[in-house]
Amino acid sequence: MREITYRQALNEALAEELERDPNVFLMGEEVAEYQGAYKVSAGLLQRFGPKRIIDTPISENGFAGLGIGAAMVGLRPVIEFMTFSFSLVAFDQVVNNAPNMFMMSGGQFNIPITFRGPNGPAHQLAATHSHATENFYASVPGLKVCTPATPRDAKGLLKTAIRDDNPVLVLEAELLYSSRGMVEPPDEELLIPLGKADVKRQGSDVSIVCYAQTVPLALKVADQLEEEDISAEILDLRSIKPLDEQAIYDSVAKTHRVVIVEQDHPFCGVGAEICYRIQKNIFDALDAPILRVSQEDVPMPYNERLEKAVLPNADKLVAAVKQVCYA
Amino acid sequence: MQPREQRDEVEMLSLMLLIRRFEERASQQYQAQKIGGFCHLYIGQEAVVTGAVAAVRDDDYIITAYRDHAHALARGTSANACMAELFGKATGCCRGLGGSMHFFDKKNHMYGGHAIVGAHVPLAVGMAFASKYRGEDRVTLCFFGDGAINQGAFHEALNLAALFKLPIVFICENNLFAMGTSVKRSTSLKQIVDRAEGYDIPGEIVDGMNFREVRDKVAEIVDSIRKEPHPAFLEVRTYRYRGHSMSDPASYRTKEELEKYRLDDPITRLRAQLTREGKLTNEQFDQLDQRAKETVLAAVKFAEQSPELPVEKMYDYVYFNGPATSERSAAASVESVAVAATEAG
What we know:
Number of domains of chain A: 2
Oligomer: heterodimer
Number of domains of chain B: 1
Shape of chain A: globular
Helix content of chain B: 40-55%
Helix content of chain A: 25-40%
Strand order of the largest sheet of chain A: 3-2-4-5-7-6-12
CATH architecture of the largest domain in chain A: 3-Layer(aba) Sandwich
Strand content of chain B: 5-15%
Radius of gyration of chain A: 19 Å
């Protein structure tokens, strides 16, 4: 194991899959000559050439569709959105073409495509550039959605996504690109299955269900809670769809109390779905109502102080945990 | 593989007849409520897809919009599979899961059947991209209507195709109406082909009621693309005799206009050409037509007698290689019981 950044981990995943399979190519805005808006694709043009690392015009609807068409005839495109906020320009392709083709064609055309890029609020980018899209996309049958929080998960999930025979969205955490973590060396194959959550920290009093940018937040809060004798279990979903329901139930059966901390909006958010499933399937294990910490239900303001107020934070999470623990 | 341009024109006339008779019968079955959803007929436009398909190889890629029955038939999908799809049956070309607007036939290189106007044009560009990526000399024929040319997806796709020099022919089947809105009321250009110029793509206009003209023009374009990959644009001027869909009485145009085009019917025209040249007798034509009618009638019977996909099978068509969700809703289970009960009763 060695320590690398989340950005490097994604870069390694891309390089390894490009190396392994000639049908894989990377396409998006500034992925080649500019080396990637967030430098995730740094060095790939030099290594794999312009045939496989392809710059596009600012034309998300067009190149997302191009990727789907190429996937229909057997290529395995990796389409980068500079941010998932821009994927909304390609919503029709991502939602209406990629996941529907398999059903509409009676099983003749599966779409082995990966859409990837940063997702979720970053820092003072205001309303149009701060979308957390996981709840939109996870609601669409036919799509898979994963949300890595660590360098290791980022690498393992992206590699799995590229090999998946279905459309997969890898929603990278914009604020975590420079975060560091231990990852297996490049000569050791690292594949993390979609739909497998990961207990990032064992605990016994409360389960904090989290993903992507809320994972480091939850871990930080767990330290703080420990000082107050509350033992929090941190369950990182890693994939929103497929959802590792069993891991959630196992944790709830152990702690009997749940807080879900999510980076999307509250109404019809990811946490709402998880709450429904917990109460339906393991109601008797609960000792308190489930609470959710999410963004406030407002478009993101630019003002820094207001932005902070919109986002989930340690204070909100601690308060929610104490409430479910009746502490 | 043998280019179809070398194939017998009588065979292509026979194909046009099959398409015509299929659509007429589909119309009748729709009115009898055997066919659900939307149903868009191709009658009047037969020379377009038939001419284009006659000019390419069987392994070239074909993709179109929702007025797609003819494109599948022209590519070799059986009338049985097409009619069964309209009936929603498991023996349909998409197992009854796509319906009229979503015909696919992978084996015959027919890539749909796409019902969001303009949204398949980027897909076509992706297919052409794949051909170039692999170093194949395959050409993609992307059909769409005059309504598609005002969609963003269309413009983005043309720009990408030109930028990447992809082997694709954009074939605009200009039937003068985007649903019920005439080209004059929807498009700022005097002629549609000028859209291509904005992307530095060579464009031409061809008479879509003339099979030979369409075939020869597409053959010429495809030949040039195979030598050196590039996009091309063809505006094919045609006319649909029926409304936009079965629910459209087409009151936005005059009887006189429709009659004018009917007199220029593509089947009548090719028949006359062949008869004049001594390649076809009236008896032979009648035989071809009779055969088309019988094929289509048999297809209706086949569709009627075919089974539907069982309800629980629908979950198999969400994800390739297994389901992503473990839970099936209670509602679906209830419905499945109800359907089973109905079937049993």
